[in-house]
Design a protein that fits this description.
This protein is an alpha/beta fold and 343 residues long. The chain is built from 12 helices and 11 strands. Helix 8 crosses helix 9.
Length: 343
């Protein structure tokens, strides 16, 4: 297993003396997990890839969980990586693959994060997991909390899809509907509640949870038989997926298991595109925007305060880019995807 050495601030180097303090006492940044992965070899890679597990936990050594007995899993990971020949031809690309995470247990990429996050919550003896969400994270946290034997509380803004709220309720969550904006009113109430009740935070302000999306790098290495994509395009809200995937690929590079890194692309709705705008302006920190209504409600985040700066770093370090799409363009892309790829 990877040994958790510290929770460290990437901005100023401060280290927490507690495993349950997630923000830097010096500068306020979200802390990051410092893992000692040891000296893994090519034979270790071969052994990992031959394991029978078809979940993210095939790569157990790379996650901040001390014991396999603590793992909370619903079978997440190893979703299909589909080579779409017809869509490739239409778009003029030689090789295009689609990572279909709609087939994750609750239908959301958040399952990757919450499997790791709730496993660590179990090790740290928390009793209640909490999250604020525009939909997908609510159901995912509730499902994994149920599997872990924890209570769950989810806060959602008024107007959140009723189907997503009912999904969280079905898993046993206490759902609190809050009037006001997601980035301001809901976030402020959530922060106060965490402090008051000692709930386990399941947002991207939780460094353990963030490690879960490193699984994209490991999984695609496996599914592409050791190849690294030239580009990876990722729908983006707060930027955790980009930052974590980049960290995962760099870990693989560290052991010499890959020879190069992919270039990353952040894809956002133009109704909520703070990373795109900040990237275009050359900013090191994310400049918040007021999120407007969009059909892409799951990425409707105007202020990715937790790891947005890390996502910007990853985009620039990878020589990547960031794009914002209108609702009309998103609807058109959905149609093309369905007609030419069957998804």
């Amino acid at each position: 297993m990877g040994v958790v050495k510290a929770l460290r601030c990437a901005k100023c180097g401060w280290e927490s003396s507690s495993w349950t303090i997630f923000r830097c006492a010096s500068c306020g940044a979200v802390l990051e997990v410092l893992l000692d992965l040891g000296n893994l070899t090519d034979s270790d890679l071969s052994e990992i890839r031959q394991r029978k597990e078809r979940t993210i936990w095939r790569w157990f050594e790379f996650f901040p969980v001390e014991s396999r007995s603590s793992i909370v899993s619903l079978g997440e990971g190893y979703t299909p990586l589909i080579q779409s020949f017809r869509l490739s031809e239409k778009l003029g690309l030689s090789r295009l693959y689609l990572k279909n995470d709609t087939l994750l247990p609750t239908g959301s990429l958040k399952d990757r994060s919450n499997s790791v996050g709730l496993s660590r919550a179990k090790e740290l003896s928390f009793s209640t997991a909490a999250v604020i969400s525009t939909g997908n994270a609510a159901a995912s946290v509730a499902a994994y909390a149920a599997a872990a034997g924890l209570k769950s509380v989810v806060m959602v803004p008024e107007g959140t899809s009723s189907a997503k709220v009912l999904q969280a309720v079905a898993y046993g969550a206490t759902v609190v509907v809050v009037q006001g904006s997601f980035d301001e009113d809901v976030a402020r109430l959530y922060k106060d509640a965490l402090k008051e009740f000692g709930w386990y935070d399941c947002l991207s302000s939780n460094p353990y949870r963030d490690e879960g999306k490193k699984s994209y790098a490991y999984e695609m290495l496996d599914q592409l038989d050791g190849e690294v994509p030239d580009w990876v395009i990722h729908p983006t809200a707060g930027g955790t997926g980009l930052y974590a995937m980049w960290k995962g690929y760099n870990e693989l590079l560290q052991f010499g298991w890959i020879k190069r890194l992919p270039r990353l692309v952040a894809a956002q709705s133009d109704a909520a595109a703070p990373l795109v705008r900040s990237f275009e302006k050359g900013l090191a920190e994310v400049e918040p925007v007021r999120a407007r209504d969009t059909i892409a409600e799951s990425i409707q985040v105007g202020n990715p305060i937790s790891v947005g700066w890390r996502a910007l770093e990853a985009l620039r370090a990878s020589r990547g880019t960031a794009v914002a799409l209108s609702d009309g363009e998103i609807i058109e892309a959905q149609s093309v995807l369905a007609r030419f790829a069957g998804i």
